Amino acid sequence: MTALRVRGLCSGYGAVRVLHGVDLQVGRGELVLLLGRNGSGRSTLLKALMGLIAASGEAWLGAQRLSGLPPHRRARLGLGYVPAQRDIFPRLSVRQNLLLGVKPAADGSPAPWDEAAVLARFAPLAARLHAPAHRLSGGEQQMLALARALLGNPSLLLLDEPAEGLAPQRVAATADLLDTLRAGGMGVLLVEQRPWARELADRVVVLGDGRVQFCGAPRELPPAVSAAWL
Ligand SMILES: Nc1ncnc2c1ncn2[C@@H]1O[C@H](COP(=O)(O)OP(=O)(O)O)[C@@H](O)[C@H]1O
Ligand SMILES: [Mg+2]
Prior knowledge:
The protein is of the alpha/beta class. Helix content is about 35%, strand content about 30%. The two termini are about 30 Å apart.
């Protein structure tokens, strides 16, 4: 069953067109890695899927049509998003930031991610619960953004370079967490250039010239595609 289905998505910024008809899908329990050069539109695609910038084309989350809905409605339907710039509220405490993310699962299933579950996974956050978020290191803020997204119990998670600024052992912990999420049936669309993500991914999607240039198993990525688009 598909968690996310996208057809002919076009988007950009004002007169600047970035995406010219993107087709892709992410299954339940599938981790899809979105690759492309800097500026190829990976972040733009995630923003368009979340409804943060205007887009044409069609997108569905499970059986629900997303097209035209504002971001909060998409979140309520089960779409989670961790932006590259994290969007932490700096003056609120770590705990207050986390609580802003709390939401039951859209399908009414028991919500696996509550505060206790998240704090057990992200020990550095548990240790800094009452600190203002701006006191956290970049890596800790990255964790906070991911933890907050999980508290929304999404069925499909959009992740824009979630391991940026993390120490190597925390990168490994992030990979482990994504594996756990996938095993629990969550769909994940991940933007990440480093090799750990290719080892983890079920499929890779290569974005170039505003379209999908390749889609398939990581091992099947043709050298010519890498040379031309990565
Ligand atoms: N807020 C913005 N306003 C105008 N152009 C933007 C904005 N954000 C990104 N762009 C442009 O859109 C293109 C795609 O950017 P982006 O989606 O951030 O690429 P990626 O995440 O793959 O590196 C780039 O040419 C970039 O300069
Ligand atoms: Mg980006």
